[in-house]
């Protein structure tokens, strides 16, 4: 992942939004660890933003699709409401 360019690359590349970049960067710093939704909301949204677990779920879904689109060797595991874990694909 290129944080500065907000781009995800593997076999090809795809653009990420600012929130997607923040969320994926945090998950990448904590691979294999279950991260609670409240922590990810703090990481992805400013204190002023009104965001909830539904908003987080939407962005996690976007990230999953983008990871799959670049044929990444990782995915985000977890159900709506969390926790979420960045895991290697088998």
Main sheet: strands, sense, barrel = 2 strands, antiparallel
How much strand?
Answer: 15-25%
Q: Name the strands of the widest sheet in spatial order.
A: 1-2
Report the radius of gyration as a whole number of Å. Answer: 12 Å
The count of helical stretches stands at: 3
> Which whole number gives the mean pLDDT?
91
Helix amount = 40-55%
Number of strands: 4
Summary keywords:
two-stranded antiparallel ribbon; single chain; 4 strands; 41% helix; globular; alpha+beta; 16% strand; 90 residues
Task: Describe how the helices and strands are arranged.
Elements: E1 7-9, E2 13-15, H1 18-29, H2 37-44, H3 53-69, E3 74-77, E4 85-88
Antiparallel strand pairs: 1-2, 3-4
Q: Could you explain how this protein is built, in words?
A:
- It is a single chain.
- This protein is of the alpha+beta class and 90 residues long.
- Helix content is 41%, strand content 16%.
- The protein has 3 helices and 4 strands.
- Strands 1-2 form a two-stranded antiparallel sheet. Strands 3-4 form a two-stranded antiparallel sheet.
- Helix 1 (18-29) crosses helix 3.
- It is globular and about 35 Å long.
- The mean pLDDT is 91.
């Amino acid at each position: 992942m290129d944080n500065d360019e907000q781009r995800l690359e593997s076999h090809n590349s795809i653009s990420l939004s600012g929130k997607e970049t923040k969320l994926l960067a945090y998950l990448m710093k904590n691979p294999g660890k279950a991260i609670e939704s409240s922590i990810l909301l703090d990481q992805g949204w400013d204190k002023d933003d009104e965001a909830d677990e539904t908003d987080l779920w939407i962005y996690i879904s976007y990230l999953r699709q983008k990871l799959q689109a670049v044929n990444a060797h990782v995915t985000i595991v977890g159900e709506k409401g969390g926790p979420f874990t960045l895991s290697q694909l088998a």
